Amino acid sequence: MRAMVFHGPGQKSWDEVPDPVIESPTDAIVRVDAVTICGTDLHILKGDVPEFTPGRILGHEAVGTIVAVGSGVRTRHVGERVLLSCISSCGACRFCREGRYGQCLGGGGWIFGHLIDGTQAELVRVPFVDTSSYPIPESITDEQMLMLADILPTSYEVGVLNGTVTPGDTVAIIGAGPIGLAAIATANLYSPGHIVAIDLADSRLQAARKIGADVIVNSGRDNPLDIVRELTGGLGADVSIEAVGIPETFETAVELARAGGHVANIGVHGKPATLHLENIWIRDLTITTGLVDTYSIPRLIRLIESGRLDPSAMITHHYRMNEFASAYETFANAGETGALKVVVAADR
C-alpha cells in the first residue's frame, strides 16, 4: 500500500510501505475511504511532537470500510463503514470507565499518527476497534462524519464544554481556523449573547461569520480587547477560547477574559507560554486545557442527523490520495489558499 510517511522535521513523502496486519485480537484492518489533515500534523512536521519518530505514517482522522477483524472483535464486522476516532479506547482502564479516553492507560489515547502508524494511508490497523470506531449512519455523508474524528469533538469538549459556555455569554474565540470554526459552530448550540471571532486572515473571518460569529475582528488592524470590552460594558469575555497554539494567542485569551471568567485553551502548543499569575489570581480566572476525549461523538452524530450541525461547511478543498503532497501544501499555506479543511479521498 501507499502512505504519507514522516522522515523527520519538514520531510514527508507518499511512499510504498507494507500493508498493516492484525496484531491483537481486538484489532481491525480498515480500508481508508477519506482522510483529512490536522493542524497537529503540521506541528509534527515542525518537530513539535518528539514522540513521533521518522518512518511513522501521519494522520489521526479517517472514515473507511472494515476489511478484516481480529478474533476478539464483537461489535464490528467486515464491510461496515466506520469513523475512526483520533482517540483510541481500551474500554477497561480507570480513565476509559470515566469517559476520559484521551488518558487511556490500556494502550489507547492519542496513538494514531503519534505512537503508532496513522490514517493517511490506503489501509490502517485499528486497535480496540469495538470501542474506538463509530458506524456511519446512512443519513450522514463521509465528509460530514470525517469532521467528527477530531475537530468537532475537540472544539466542543475542550473549548465549549470545558469553557462552560452558557446562554447570553460573550464568547471570544482566538483563531478562526478549523478548530476555531468548530468552536463557533458548537458554542452556538448554547445560545451565547455574542461570539467574537479573532484572526489575522479576512478569508477565515468571513468563514467565521457564515458559521455563526456575529462579531469579527482582524487583530492585525483592530485591538480585540477594545472591541470585546465595548461589547461587555468594559468587563471582558465570559469565555475566552484559544484555538491557535502559540504563546501570544494564549496570553491574548487570558487578557480578553473578564474577572471570574473562563479561559479554555484548545491550541496545541510547541513552546512554553507565560502564565502571569501575578495578574491572574486576583481576577478569579479559571484556565482549562486538555486533550480531547471524544466522548461527545455520539451526541454530535445525533446533532448532524437532526440538522442542528453541518460541519461540511468547513471543507474547502478536495484531493485524491495521489495528490497528498498538494493537499499538504494547500493546508500549510492557508493564509494564501483560504484552506480550512481539506478532504483527501481514496483513488479508487
Would you mind describing this structure in some detail?
The protein is of the alpha/beta class. Helix content is 27%, strand content 24%. The chain has helices spanning 39-45, 94-97, 129-132, 142-146, 151-161, 178-187, 202-211, 224-231, 247-256, 277-280, 297-305, 324-332, 334-337, and strands at 2-8, 11-16, 28-36, 62-69, 81-84, 123-126, 133-135, 170-174, 194-199, 215-218, 237-242, 257-265, 286-288, 315-320, 341-345. The strands form three sheets. Strands 3, 4, 5, 6, 7, 14 and 15 form a seven-stranded mixed beta sheet that branches. Helix 10 links the parallel strand 12 and strand 13 (286-288). Helix 5 crosses helix 6. It is globular and about 60 Å long. The model has no long low-confidence stretch (mean pLDDT 96).
Summarize the structure.
The chain contains 13 helices and 15 strands. The chain has helices at residues 39-45, 94-97, 129-132, 142-146, 151-161, 178-187, 202-211, 224-231, 247-256, 277-280, 297-305, 324-332, 334-337; strands spanning 2-8, 11-16, 28-36, 62-69, 81-84, 123-126, 133-135, 170-174, 194-199, 215-218, 237-242, 257-265, 286-288, 315-320, 341-345.
